Amino acid sequence: xxxxxxxxxxxxxxxxxxxxxxxxxxxxxxxxxxxxxxxxxxxxxxxxxxxxxxxxxxxxxxxxxxxxxxxxxxxxxxxxxxxxxxxxxxxxxxxxxxxxxxxxxxxxxxxxxxxxxxxxxxxxxxxxxxxxxxxxxxxxxxxxxxxxxxxxxxxxxxxxxxxxxxxxxxxxxxxxxxxxxxxxxxxxxxxxxxxxxxxxxxxxxxxxxxxxxxxxxxxxxxxxxxxxxxxxxxxxxxxxxxxxxxxxxxxxxxxxxxxxxxxxxxxxxxxxxxxxxxxxxxxxxxx
Length: 287
Hints:
The chain is an alpha/beta fold. The protein has helices at 19-25, 47-58, 80-84, 101-122, 142-156, 173-179, 198-209, 228-239, 276-283, and strands at residues 38-42, 62-66, 89-92, 126-132, 161-166, 181-182, 185-188, 192-193, 216-221, 226-227, 244-247, 270-271.
């Protein structure tokens, strides 16, 4: 398996298109979109899941929005067999309810094992999972160790797969600010990022879901690189938030050290079209 970071996803002498190029070529205008499929979205009631479910339904697919609230629980196994029966594709966008080191690892390992085992029984032909750009470089974090464990389970299974690693979502910038707030200030490093709109992540996942499995990892990112401190500064300014962003090279990102390589994609990401400034103008009421 070629790394998705720092070099093309296919070796230069393979004479084959790399995985990211293949992904770009698969769009809703492709012949796959005309083929009716049953697609189960695990975490179908969340931010990405809701958008993905709507996206796929608009294009004529039978989509099951699976979550504990709909009676499908990947931790206990409740409802899994019924939800997956007849499904060609499963897209896992579920996130852990707790990010405490032990709890998050148990969630992704237990959920992953139960889901993959159930898929094997009913003959699912493509497992798609949402992960995070930089997971393999941020293993000092318990959350990213858990995401790495999830990815490894997928790769070790016999089910054809595609792992989609996304950069940070625009929608989570407020959370970054809140986590790093000290009184009236927000202390952040200036590490480079390339955040993406949730709508663009959902669109990329939809393309992958209706395409052939790549048995590889692909990356999606926003169109523009920006430094973390500046990103949050722009966000707070647009909201009229008086908190002041202080750039601190020693500051941590959710408790983890980051640099200019930690959070940005490699050579061949799929780029979402939405710019941060455009998202801001659409998402925050203008005064």
